[in-house]
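name: query_chain
kind: protein
chains: 1
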Amino acid sequence: MRQIVLDTETTGLSADSGDRIIEIGCVEMVDRKLTGKNLHFYLNPGRDSHEDALKVHGISNEFLKDKPQFRAIADELMAYLEGAELIIHNAPFDLSFLNKELSLIGRAPVKDFVAGVIDSLMMAKELFPGKRNSLDALCDRLDVDNSGRTLHGALLDAELLADVYINLTRGQNSLVMDEGPEPEPGEPIQAIDLRSIELPLLTANDQECAAHESLLAGIDKASKGKTIWRSLRA
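structure:
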């Protein structure tokens, strides 16, 4: 599976109000591993960034004056993203800007050329309800090193989000896991007979059973007696 972790920096908060993209960072993963085939652009938005946005990304208007406009990189970006599954933190925000940029040059929206979009912010909210789920907060919670992140940057944030996503989905603890040498083509894979392995049966003690019942009772009370296990017992 080919996935692209994507992030943007913008002149402000609203694409519909005329704000534009100034930076795009993309990190490629294939089968949940970094490939190193990343894509990064700084863009001339044709307007100044809002003061509050400058405080977030620190990318000056002067720095962007000689950078290409979005239309100049659109073909390369679309070819890179085509057919991939996108992973974006707070996807509606970035997609609104990308779709606005595409519409301004007469191109189809993102959904027409990618396989799908995963919003890692929504995923984090489901896993950690009631907690802060910003990228920095998730880095701290999931032991992802973000010490180099003093300002927002699209490529750096995409790299951090790739590591956060792997931890969120519990696929592996590192994007550089060494899985050992690949088998040679045609080499038989040695089967392991698991029937000889005896698995211990662990039963809960009285204290654990009591704690479990207390937890179920609390959930039952919160749902006003509508829990399924109570009705099944009845």
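note: Residues 60 and 163 are 28 Å apart (CA to CA).
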